[in-house]
Amino acid sequence: MKKPRSSHAELEPPKGGTPNTPQTAIDCVWSPAFRRPRRHPRQNELSRAALVLLCCWLSSIPSLFAAGRKVMVLGIDGMDPKLLQTFVEQGRMPNFKALMAEGDFRPLQTTMPPQSPVAWSTFMTGMDPGGHGIFDFIHVDPSKMAPYSSMAQADPGGRPINAGTWSFPTSGGGVHILRKGTTFWQMLGERGLRSTIFRMPVNFPPVKSPGRALAGMGTPDLIGSLGTFSFYVDHRSDWPPSISGGEIYGVTVTSNRVSAQLNGPPNTFRRFPTKESLDLREKGRAVSIEFENPKMTQDFVVHLDSKAGAAKFVVGDQEFILKEKEWSDWIHVEFEAIPHLMTVSSAARFYLKQLTPKFELYVTPLQIDPEDPVMPISHPTDWSKQLCSHLGRYYTHNIPEDTQAFNHGVFTAREFWEQMIFAYEERSRAMDYLLKHQDEDFLFVYFGTVDQGCHMLWHFMDPRHPGHVKDELLKDGIAKLYEMLDIQLGRVRAAIGKETTLVVMSDHGFAPFYWEVNLNTWLLEQGYITLKDPSKQESGEFFSNVDWSRTKCYAAGLNGLYINLKGREKGGSVTAGAEYENLMDQLEKALLAMKDPRNTNSPVSLVTRPRQDFQGAEKDKGPDILVGYSRGYRSSSDSPLGLFPKAAFVDNKSPWSGDHCIDYRVVPGILVTNRRITSQTPTLADLTVSLLHEYGVAPTKEMIGKQVLEPKN
Amino acid sequence: MTSAASALNAVFNLVFGVLYGMLKWLGPFWSLTGIACLTGILMVWIFGKVSNQTAIERTRDRLSAELIGLRLFKDDLRVFFGIQFQVLAWTFKYLRHSIVPMLILMVPTVIILIQLNLHYGFRPLRTGESALVKVKLRAASAMAAESSLTLRAPENLQVETPGVHVPDLKEICWRVRGVRDGRFDLIVSDGKDSIAKQVAVGGRLEGVSTIRTGESWLSCLLNPGEAPIPVQSVIESIEIRYPELDILILGKPMNWLIPFLILSLVLGFAFKGVLGVKI
Ligand SMILES: [Zn+2]
Question: Does B150 lie in the same domain as B115?
Answer without folding.
Answer: no
